[in-house]
């Protein structure tokens, strides 16, 4: 077990198997020392944790929990490429998409769920640049989607 997985276990998390793509893409790709994940939905045990629109169907707390699951799924995608999560040097960038009503403005609160999980997993190396964007809809009616860029060492 990697140190990253041990830190996650201390917080009650287990890195899942990499999520099966729902369209024509792969979960993550490496170029040089960077790994880019595809957008990760909040799947846990084959089910979406949150569906619908923030501001009408989903509150920020449920959205943040779903964003944390997205980040956990992104970690699984990274692991599928690099093998050992202790090879991650740092989380470089997180982009979070929040399905939201036009009046909803708490996108950063929702995506904090992902950011906080990455900090638990990677410590100071998990602190990252970030964008949190509102969108009209996401695949499969997911409430949130997260993609991650990490730097790794050989």
Number of helices: 3
Global geometry: globular
Biggest sheet: strands, sense, closure? 5 strands, mixed
Topology as a string of helices (H) and strands (E): HEEEEHEHEE
Quick structural summary:
The chain has helices at 3-10, 60-82, 107-122; strands at residues 28-31, 34-37, 43-44, 47-48, 88-99, 129-135, 144-152. It has 154 residues and is α+β, with helices and mostly antiparallel strands. The longest helix has 23 residues, at 60-82.
Give a structural overview.
The protein is an alpha+beta fold. The radius of gyration is 14 Å and the shape is globular. The strands form two sheets. A five-stranded mixed beta sheet has the order 1-2-7-5-6, covered by helices on one side. The mean pLDDT is 97. The protein starts with a helix and ends with a strand. 44% of the residues are buried. Helix content is 31%, strand content 26%. It has one domain: 60s Ribosomal Protein L30, Chain: A (2-Layer Sandwich), CATH 3.30.1330.40. The chain has helices at 3-10, 60-82, 107-122, and strands at residues 28-31, 34-37, 43-44, 47-48, 88-99, 129-135, 144-152. A hairpin with a 2-residue loop joins strand 3 (43-44) and strand 4 (47-48).
């Amino acid at each position: 077990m990697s140190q990253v997985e041990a830190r996650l276990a201390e917080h009650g998390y287990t890195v899942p198997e990499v999520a099966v793509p729902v369209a024509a893409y792969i979960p993550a790709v490496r170029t040089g020392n960077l790994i880019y994940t595809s957008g990760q939905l909040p799947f846990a045990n084959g089910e979406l944790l949150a569906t619908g629109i923030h501001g009408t169907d989903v509150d920020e707390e449920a959205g943040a929990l779903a964003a944390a699951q997205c980040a956990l799924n992104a970690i699984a995608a990274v692991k599928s490429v690099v093998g050992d999560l202790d090879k991650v040097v740092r989380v470089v960038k997180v982009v979070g998409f929040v399905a939201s009503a036009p009046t909803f403005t708490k996108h950063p609160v929702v995506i904090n769920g992902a950011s906080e999980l990455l900090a638990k997993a990677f410590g100071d190396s998990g602190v990252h640049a970030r964008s949190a964007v509102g969108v009209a809809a996401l695949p499969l009616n997911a409430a949130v989607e997260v993609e991650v860029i990490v730097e790794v060492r050989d």
